[in-house]
Amino acid sequence: MSFAAASTTTLPLESTQQAIGYPSLFLLVLVGALVPVVPTGALVSSAAVVAFHQTAPFALALVFVVGALAAFLGDVALYWLGQRGMRSRSGSRWLARIRDRAPEDRLAQAQQKLDDHGVAVLTLSRLLPAGRIPVMLACLMARMPLRDFARGDAPACLAWAATYQLIGILGGSLFPKPWEGVVAAVVLTLAISSVPGVWRRMRGPAAS
Fold first, then answer.
1. Secondary structure (H, E, C), the chain
2. Which of 65, 128, 144, 203 has the smallest count of CB within 10 Å of its CB?
3. How high is the mean pLDDT in each 10-residue block of the chain (208 residues)?
């Protein structure tokens, strides 16, 4: 009787979370890919923590698919908008945003890696904090066709989603309560994303 009662209270709660959670995850990751200020990695990790504690058999798989698909569509849309800006004499606000978030030193590194490794560099750029935008700008400046960019970006988004989902699974396995795992996953992903900025500040005085 207690099992039946637990089932009737757990299943509706999980179905409600899934009905709201997956569309929200998709939209937030999509927006985060277009406007690179949303911590999309933390979103995927947090969703993975919640899915880890659910009884639905495909919850984690859905988080992976939704996160990777939203990231891919956002990347492709942003690249397409950047291409339009490159073709326009006056540029565009989307291209300006991409350039603003690609420091000269990182852009130069991205261009060199693109020359050496081609579209394969997109996979690494998605996994490195703050690496996506400089590589995307390098691809735009190299006039890479959208089809080639999409072909390289697809495995990059899959690897990115898998990496941050593993962080969420780790947080979910270490803590008995979902909210504790979410906090741990968010703190870890934000710490990882802050590494490039801290490293540049530490190098600044030495470089000068």
1. CHHHHHHHHHHHHHHHHHHHHHHHHHHHHHHHHHCCCCCHHHHHHHHHHHHHCCCCCCHHHHHHHHHHHHHHHHHHHHHHHHHHHHHCCCCCHHHHHHHHCCCHHHHHHHHHHHHHHHHHHHHHHHHCCCCHHHHHHHHHHCCCCHHHHHHHHHHHHHHHHHHHHHHHHHHHHHCCCHHHHHHHHHHHHHHHHHHHHHHHHHHHHHHC
2. 203
3. 38 65 92 84 89 81 96 95 84 80 85 87 85 92 93 94 91 75 76 59 52
